[in-house]
Amino acid sequence: MKRHIIGATVLALFFLMCYMSGVSLAQEEEVEYSWGRVSSLSSNQITVKEYDYESDEEVDVTYVIDPKVKIENVNSLEEITIGDSVGIDFVVRKDKKVAKVIIVEKSSYEEEYTPEETYEEEPEEEYEEEPEYFPEEIE
User: Three-state SS for 46?
Assistant: First the structure.
């Protein structure tokens, strides 16, 4: 009798573990990625102008910002400005795109192309023209 109780308990625990692992797998969300330029921003959502390959045009896509969002390359959402290039890792919950990670690529033309040192142009030296040399034709 003890064997049957122990066997039933082990079997019940086995089924319970299988059920719980199935529930946890169902709760995992598929993370997707997109990128574009910020067109508007508030404390709880960000709108990004992205290229839509299906319609072959740029569209505005709005993401709800997860309260635990991870932000890269800036310290806070307040440092993100309209026109910044961003990459967004997001999940879809109840037909809404929820931003989990926002990667900001802040670079301007001046920052990117300003030389570290300035060099003055040296004046060209004058050279005497050398006569052109043509080898004699050998016959």
Answer: strand
